[in-house]
Structure of FtsK/SpoIIIE family protein:
Amino acid sequence: MAKKNSTKDTEQSLSLFGKIRAIFKNETIHFVIGLVLVIFSVYLLLAFSSFFFTGAADQSIIDSGNAQELASTNNGVKNYAGSRGAQLASYLINDCFGISSFFILVFLAVAGLKLMRVRVVRLWKWFIGCSLLLVWFSVFFGFAFVEQYKDSFLYLGGMHGYNVSNWLVSQVGVPGVWMILLVTAICFLIYLSARTVIWLRRLFSLSFLKRKQKEEEEKGETPEEFTDSWTAKGKKKPVSVPDVADIKEEEAPIEIPEPIKEPENEITLDLGGVTETQPAKVSGEEVSMTIETPVPDPVPPFHEKAAEPVFEIEATENDDEYKGPEKEPYNPRLDLENYRYPTVDLMKHYDNAEPTIDMAEQNANKDKIINTLRSFGIEISTIKATVGPTVTLYEITPEQGVRISKIRGLEDDIALSLSALGIRIIAPIPGKGTIGIEVPNSNPKIVSGQSIIGSKKFQESTYDLPVALGKTITNEVFMVDLCKMPHMLVAGATGQGKSVGLNAIITSLLYKKHPAELKFVLVDPKKVEFSIYSVIEHHFLAKLPDGEDAIITDVTKVVQTLNSICVEMDTRYDLLKAAHVRN
């Protein structure tokens, strides 16, 4: 019987704790507690502020400690927060931490706003930050203004700062205390932002003095001569340009080849560069087949330009006309001027990336396409093949009177005759009077990122956000400007290259943009797609101030990040509105 009673008591106690826990988990209770904390912080702010002006008059009443006198209605306390507010202000400011006690109000207000769900913050980070600032400023004011403790009612560092500073002075001396305060302040700034390290490196390298000296040198130059930005930085020496009359143009002989009459029913394989002619037989007739192989552009070194002569022009200016002070546009790259762009050799090189042509395969596919169409009563006049890295495009010109829909309906039959995994018929090709048949190559070549990023087209691109996605069937780099794409959806079945496409987009931007010009917000629910980019967190990744990881893996935190991006977008729209511009 006693055992049953003890079990019942245990269940009742557990249910009681469960009810109490449920009460404190209630959002309404959280809101009420948060509201009380916010109001209490405002009350303390009023008491602290009034203490600076009425503390001297209220000091005798508060120090007397007479509870009856303080509880009476005519106690003579002049503090706007009353006798209790005056007591709290005197205790926290004079007896505890000095004027740094204002950080207690900040933490109470932030905690209240979090409970009210007005702001989404990490409370423990605010607690650590406010606690460190509370102690540091208390010691600082107690050490720096120790002489004012004798003649003032207000102790700027409180008794805590006074006692700690006196102990530190006795241990390490006055210079040692200043060093301790400086080191702890720097450590706290590094805790707040990693950019503090960059700023300190720039400070110790005296880069600001070099920049000032450079600006003075630029101001000392005459306005009649100017050079390009590379000359101003001392990276090129000015080269005088000879007179135009001294330059003789070399006339090259012009050879006009004789026109070659093309045979009827000519079948051409166009692969884009070096031509090779080989006879082929179609239904008893010998036709010439021209093959043009694509010649890839040499990959120049990334972000390196050959030395160019400097073009100097002397121009007279009207001294009477006042043009006003010249203002150069703000260059965000100066915030991280020592940043170096990644080089192309960081990417993997593939030896089999050069385009090669299997003539046996091309001739076999050509004959199969012609015979398949002929078996359905479709004759063609010409056929042209363009061999790409992974796909070959056959452009056919049907005879007069052949309906395009008839050829489009033979897609499965052509795929069956070619033994291909799948083909695509483009009927007709836009801008041309031909029909295209795309056939996968039996031995596809790898389109490497090194060949795309190192191409001349990508390096000399003037896009705001250039993205290189691959190569076209003519072996040209395919690029788009992300600024022209307000929305982009990457979709496809498993193994179709979605991850490769996303990484190509990110890699293109990393190779072309400066950290001061671009930031990424990466969301990776799978936790393995974008984890490799965590090493560039301090340069290219953006996150919330209280966020733990720069790459978001918890989908519940995405809403907060998107809301912060919307706030930033509204701020930029306000700036555009104030500047009376659209973009």
Summary: The first strand starts at residue 274 and ends at 282.
